[in-house]
């Protein structure tokens, strides 16, 4: 099995790239081929799980099907995203105590699977407000576990995979997830306009199993011991790391840029809402958008990953520009040719392009921050960045909710403007792949 991984790895990378291990430990370099595929498979499985429990598409449909209050649906994206980001300073201080950090990722993946399965059970046994609050409460725990995985994964990636291969690893794992997500979307077409709860619950149960399999695969990653400084007084050490935003100009610039690039994630629910306003069957809209997101990831992730290994900064710029221009096109259509939205292909096509752009934003910023730092500095960079982004996500989510009283197009226009500003900020970032 080890020889198969070595041979396949050699075919995927030229000899120069395969031996470019100057930024990781020499003993870890020998394990790169096996670790590369273990991480791809485990990340791909969790990405599929994320797709079949999507808080922008699947969970809102599930809450609607169980008769949960509409207000709870608006909490899903902020809780899932900010809930995993805001606590990461404290989580990073805890993770720093361990010389081998893959077990933190394994534990987080097991917990996420358990929460998703519990959501399915709650939806089958409960209804209305009780079901809605139960699912939201489980989503809080899920998000905390997701934050644990986020901190640990980037550190393990930096210790086990050479810099010239990290972008492609992320890209191929997303592409793998995209392929299976297409199948999930096709399966959802069997749901009638009445939206059978058991179909959504089956999706969640499938996702739970994937997280547990991913945990088993990731536990086999050969990770060598790393530094544990700062683990004794985890919380105090974590809070002190906020000083990085003052002292480290490059990190500060990246955090500001990443905040502006939230436009791609924040605009997605508004495009889905726009589509639902022009659709007679919510279930069909749900199925369409799940399949579309899978197709977009399958096709675009390998390209973004390869591009990110050459310049993750350029990936962020290009993806931000696409997001911004797409929003401006939609606003223009709404103003001059609103009848186009009634077409069966316009809004699905818009969401397809948006998903491609968001994939670029996500892969670009993930690759950039891993390549920007080394050792324990990487854990500090990730935790500080993610914590601040969590707060920004809550703030910007509140602002967009406030703006929505003037209509969807106002929100999309403002987010497009932020995307253009984010592209300009990314343009001023230094290259980190050289």
TrEMBL record:
CDD domains, per the entry: MFS (cd06174)
TM annotation in the entry: 57-79, 103-125, 131-149, 169-191, 197-218, 251-272, 284-308, 315-337, 343-361, 381-402, 408-429
Segments forming a coiled coil: none
InterPro entries: MFS, MFS_dom, MFS_trans_sf, Sugar_transport-like
Domain of life per record: Bacteria
Keywords attached to this entry: Membrane, Plasmid, Transmembrane, Transmembrane helix
Sequence ranges assigned to domain Major facilitator superfamily (MFS) profile in this UniProt record: 200-434
Keyword Membrane applies: yes
SUPFAM superfamilies per record: MFS general substrate transporter
UniProt keyword Transmembrane helix present: yes
PANTHER family according to UniProt: INTEGRAL MEMBRANE TRANSPORT PROTEIN-RELATED, MAJOR FACILITATOR SUPERFAMILY (MFS) PROFILE DOMAIN-CONTAINING PROTEIN
Name under which the protein is recorded: MFS transporter
Taxonomic lineage: Bacteria, Pseudomonadati, Pseudomonadota, Gammaproteobacteria, Vibrionales
């Amino acid at each position: 099995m080890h020889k198969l991984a070595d041979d396949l790895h050699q075919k995927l990378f030229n000899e120069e790239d395969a031996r470019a291990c100057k930024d990781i430990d020499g003993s870890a370099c020998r394990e790169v081929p096996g670790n590369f595929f273990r991480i791809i498979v485990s990340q791909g499985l969790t990405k599929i799980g994320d797709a079949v429990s999507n808080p922008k598409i699947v969970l809102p449909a599930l809450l609607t099907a169980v008769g949960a209050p509409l207000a709870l649906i608006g909490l899903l994206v902020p809780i899932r995203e900010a809930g995993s980001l805001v606590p990461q300073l404290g989580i990073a201080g805890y993770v720093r105590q361990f010389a081998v950090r893959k077990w933190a990722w394994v534990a987080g993946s097991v917990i996420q699977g358990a929460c998703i399965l519990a959501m399915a059970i709650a939806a089958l046994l409960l209804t209305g407000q009780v079901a809605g609050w139960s699912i939201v409460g489980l989503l809080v725990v899920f998000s905390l576990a997701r934050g644990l995985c986020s901190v640990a994964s980037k550190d393990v990636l930096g210790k086990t995979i050479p810099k010239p291969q990290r972008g492609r690893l992320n890209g191929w794992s997303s592409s793998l997830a995209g392929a299976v997500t297409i199948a999930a979307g096709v399966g959802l077409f069997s749901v009638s306009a009445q939206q059978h709860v058991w179909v959504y619950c089956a999706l969640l149960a499938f996702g739970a199993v994937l997280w547990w399999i991913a945990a088993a695969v990731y536990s086999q990653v050969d990770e060598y011991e790393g530094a544990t400084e700062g683990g004794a007084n985890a919380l105090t050490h974590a809070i002190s790391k906020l000083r990085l935003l003052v002292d480290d100009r490059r990190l500060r610039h990246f955090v500001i840029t990443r905040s502006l690039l939230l436009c791609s994630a924040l605009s997605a629910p508004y495009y889905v809402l726009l589509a639902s306003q022009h659709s007679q069957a919510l279930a069909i809209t749900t199925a369409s958008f799940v399949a579309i997101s899978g197709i977009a990831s399958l096709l675009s992730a390998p390209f973004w990953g390869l591009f990110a290994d050459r310049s993750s900064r350029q990936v962020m710029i290009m993806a931000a520009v696409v997001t911004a221009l797409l929003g401006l096109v939609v606003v223009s259509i709404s103003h001059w040719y609103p009848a186009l939205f009634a077409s069966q292909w316009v809004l699905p096509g818009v969401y397809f392009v948006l998903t491609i752009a968001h994939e670029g934003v996500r892969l670009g910023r993930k690759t950039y921050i891993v390549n920007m730092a080394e050792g324990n500095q990487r854990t500090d960079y990730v935790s500080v960045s993610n914590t601040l982004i969590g707060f920004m996500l809550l703030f910007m989510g509140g602002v967009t909710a406030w703006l929505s009283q003037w209509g969807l197009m106002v929100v999309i226009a403002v987010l497009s403007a932020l995307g253009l500003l984010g592209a300009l900020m990314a343009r001023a970032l230094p290259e980190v792949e050289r």
